Structure formats: structure tokens, C-alpha cells
Amino acid sequence: MKIKILILALLLLPASIFAQSMMDILKPDLGKKLGTCSVCGMDVFEKMMTRVEIEVADTVYHACGIGCATAIMEGKNVKDVKVVDFKTFKLVDAKKSWFVVGSVISPVRAMLPEFSFASKKEADEFAKIYGGKVLDYQSMFDLAKKIREERKKSN
Description:
40% helix, three-stranded antiparallel beta sheet, NosL protein, signal
């Protein structure tokens, strides 16, 4: 009986090591951790496609997405808001960006699954292929705030 258990353990060990190494290979490179979203507690990484960077006075806040960013910005004198351009993964001015919501591709974590683009053309091309609605910054901000307020009421 002990020999059967030993043989089984020897057979399962390489399989578990291989499975872990495959998980490491498949894991996306999110870059370094920048902090934690102060609204939902999610870790925020530099290459996270829905990341929002909010500058207030001499403090930079990191949000996991527009939904949480609206809560962070509430009542603050915001100097600058940046989002990650889906095509280049570079930070761009959120107020000049375009957003796609409701596509068939959905970030796993998002309260409001959105993708940001530096240009309307890029957002339109993405929406043409993957569906969704293209919104400017103010429309995206208003939608995120509305959804956040509705969720507060239902809780």
C-alpha cells in the first residue's frame, strides 16, 4: 500500500510542477505593482489595461478602472487624469481619450468593463470588430458615476 502511494506521489509531482510552470508562462506581464485601488482594494499594476492615474495636488492615486476613479475624484480638485491606451499600453490624457464599453472582450475585474484609446479612430475600429459603444471622456465618466451610484442604492 505504501509503495502504491509513493509511486502515485512520484507520478503526480512532475505534473504539479509542470502545471505551475504553465500557469507562470500564461500569466500576463502586468509590470510592477503601483499600489492598491483605495475604493475596491484591487492591486493596480503599471501595465493593467484599465488603470487610471489621478493627480490631486502633490498626490497620485491609482484606480483599477473608471468606476473606482469616479469615487476617488469625488470632491477633490483634480489636476490630471490619465488612462492606459489599449493599443500602446502608454498613459494618455483621459480627457482627450475615447472609451469602448460593452464589447465582447471584457477585463476580468472591471466594475464597468471599459477600454481606453488615444484616438476616436482606434476606438471605432475596436468597436467595429469586438462590439461595444464608443464614448468620450465626459460620457464615460457620467456613465461610470451613474452605475456606481446605482450600486450604492442596491447595497
